[in-house]
TrEMBL record:
Its EC number is 2.7.13.3. One of its GO terms (biological process) is regulation of DNA-templated transcription. It comes from the Bacteria. The keyword Phosphoprotein applies. This is histidine kinase. The lineage of its organism: Bacteria, Pseudomonadati, Pseudomonadota, Betaproteobacteria, Nitrosomonadales.
Amino acid sequence: MANHSLDPKVSPHDDFLDKISFRELFDAAVEAMVLVDAAGHIVMANCAAQRVFEYTLDEMLGLEIEALVPERYREHHRKYRKLYLAEPYQRSMGSTRELMLLKHDGQEMAMRASLSPINVETETCILVTISTLNRRDEAERTLQASEERFRLIQQAADAGVFDIDCANNRVYCDRRMCELLNNGTEEIMALEKFFAAIHPDDRVRFRVIFDDVVNMSAGNTCRGEFRVMQQPDHRERWIATLGQAQFENGRTKRIVGIARDITERKLLEKALQQQRSEIETLFSQQVAVITASAIAHEINSPLTAVAAYSDVAHRALSYRPIEKVKAQEALEGCIQQALQAGRKLHELIEFLQKREIQTEELSLNRIIEDALLQLHSDGYGSFHLTLDLEPDLPLIRANKIQVQKVLVNLIKNSVQAMRIENIDHSEIAIILKTLPGENMAIVTIRDNGPGIDEKTISHIFDPFFTTKPTGFGVGLSISRALIEANGGQLWIDPDFREGAQFHFTLPYAS
Ligand code: ADP
């Protein structure tokens, strides 16, 4: 690049200029100025420069320019100076990146500088004009720094940014957000297009959360995990969003938020969830096998005896004349053995029920929260939840794992029933109250699924009763047994018609 040395034109004021020395002009400038030679030494410094850097002229002359630069930038600055001298041109420093310079006493100052090459005979010198930053510059610089910080955080978190203008139904999406939504590089889109990018199965849920925020019925933060469709292979991608609403004159003005790709986490969760449900099925099968073996063991010998007595009775009755006494004795034996089998079964059940369970004082709210988390991670979290919790509900006394298991079973059943019926807007309500007149809590789980018809309802608590192709039919019978073991009861509301409604009770701790 060519040097931009001064090329003074002949002007009528030349005489006048002859009367002023260059030194005087240099010293009259408000801005600090130093002239640096090709070797990097200061060969001139005006009064303003001496004032700003608090050096005397003698101290400044001959000083390497890097003496005015903080130690940590010096090496870089020397290299940069050499590069600049190879191709000098007029430019500024410190407008985009922070330029720190040093006073004589070592104090650092944020400054802005401009560099102009000046040809002095065969040598190229650099005239450095230095100005301190004014308030606006400072504010600009702070803003730039904070934007840069934000950009780095965003990059590190691999997050996309969206900004929904609720008044005009338009959404600004940054490049990363557009990538996540698979909308190319478009940056401002109609709200409907933003919604359309969400997977059809999650769109209603997304819309419900959005409407809650817009109608100001859900606080000012909204978060959720949704699927988006990837074109062209329609691969599913999961994103987690976190939005913050801003209100103005009692209306939601905008929702600003970020979204992150959580597909990997979701795939891992799905694999774990599958593994868990396989283990659970295996476990249920094992429990069934062990229970059946225990029952067989207990009633096998009475049954064998019943068969033998029956054979004797049969034969005694076939003789002519009938051996009445023998037949009577044999039938008496049958009765005794059958009663014995019944007693043994009762003993077995009593033994199993006698097992002590560990109970503790618990907050039902807390157990519900944990159950919801588990459902979420098991892939059963996509429904609209209504929580109706009585304030200041006393603590219950129960076994936490067992109560959580019951909640998970009931809610899973609801979600499965609604999925089988392809219910668009699946809703589950959990209601927590005190059972009137009792020292007990009553928990109600209600869904808007298909419900249970009259014929089926009388069997649902029977072990191994199921209407699902891969069901095991033990969830409800185990849930009932668990609630009873904790001192409560579990039942279904037979009159509820808008879905299914289960209730269970648990005793308060005090
Ligand atoms: P499984 O879930 O393995 O079938 P369960 O004992 O948990 O075993 O449930 C038994 C049956 O009760 C289910 O197969 C289903 O027919 C019925 N059921 C349970 N909960 C619901 C519900 N919320 N809505 C409709 N049907 C239900």
